[in-house]
Amino acid sequence: MSPHDSKSIARRGEHLENIAICFFVLSWTFIALRTWTRTCVISQFGWDDSTMILAGMIFSAYCACILYIEANGGGTHITSAAQITMLTKWVIASEVTYILTVLTVKISLGIFFARIIVQRWQHNLIHVTLAVTALSSISSCFYCIFRCGPDINDYVLRQLVNKCTPRALDRFFAYQHAAFSFLTDGVFATLPVFIVWNIHMKRHLKFHVGFILSLAALGCICSAIRFQYVEGLTQIEDFFWNATNISVWSTIEPGVGIVAACLATLRPFLKWACTKAQSLRSSFSHSAQQISHSTGSRETPSKQQGDSSSNGHPCRYINSDAEAQHDELIELRSESSKKGESTEYILSQGRALNGPSPSEMSRSLELDRMSTRTTRDRDVEASPPRGEHLLPRPLDAS
């Protein structure tokens, strides 16, 4: 047991806790986006989506085990037998949930690829790969539970007296599960190449589709990195300190696998989001144009009225009656100025401001009568006396 200072031990446990919380949140965020895409955007919810939701539930149980172990001494040097006995049960639960999470993610990926491939040999490859992965995972699950006998309470005691399985067998199951997990991710990472190889489309579109499908097997990289830390599972002495690195990558691998598998299904969601953003942008632009147009239409009449009042337009009649009508109707405004105000008398307001008052109208009518009477008198004076137009005009002397 190598000595470590308290700060390094605290950072080790805090690092594991942060990773578990981060991937727990990320996994459920992308599972929710995938579920919403398959149910609301394209309405093609399938078994691969149901299996991914199940994987998220199992991964949540795994994260809960990791957080409990870290909160009760995980990542430190534990010497208390009671504490080791208690934490050993949680370690077995975390190992089983990790194996089941990885298996469920692989099954979801297999169903996802089976929905889009058409060739028979590709279906057979997926079935064989999933069968081998399931056999490896189930055997590793039972080995973790029963490696020291059926009674988990005697697990630590039997381990101290060397009555559990030998360490060579521990290494075998640990490495075989990691190896088959890596091979499965490798198969799913290369399968999109064969899917898009014979599709008639442009080359850049082939690369685009192949890249999106390959995201589903991004966990292959994490499986390769985790492979070098598998030895920590077989180091029984100071197990909770030595298993910290493998615990970190055992959290990252299924978390990245869930996120990557969900990313491969979010292309319809991204297209919908882009279309929605463009429509919102166009609607905002149209609204801004309408607001600017209405503002300009309100400013133009006010400017015209101001110019006519300042220049003293001859057609503009100003008196007390017009001012009274203006005071009565000026409070009624258009709907573009304030919401909910009346627009009933806008036309009357314009007439009251620009048209003549009743007294002015009576004055103009009186002037019209006088001018008509004068014109009639002139016509009577200019006309010949009655009967003269009946006498013949006298002839010239010539």
TrEMBL record:
Keywords: Membrane, Transmembrane, Transmembrane helix. One of its GO terms (cellular component) is membrane. Residues 288-318, 332-398 are annotated as: Disordered. It comes from the Eukaryota. Residues 33-271 form the Rhodopsin domain. Residues 332-342, 363-391 have a biased composition (Basic and acidic residues). InterPro entries: Rhodopsin_dom_fungi (IPR049326), SAT4-like (IPR052337). Pfam families: Fung_rhodopsin. It is a multi-pass membrane protein. Residues 288-312 have a biased composition (Polar residues). The chain crosses the membrane at residues 18-37, 49-69, 96-118, 125-146, 178-197, 209-229, 249-270. Its main location: membrane. It is found in: Membrane. Belongs to the SAT4 family. This is Rhodopsin domain-containing protein. It comes from Lentithecium fluviatile CBS 122367.
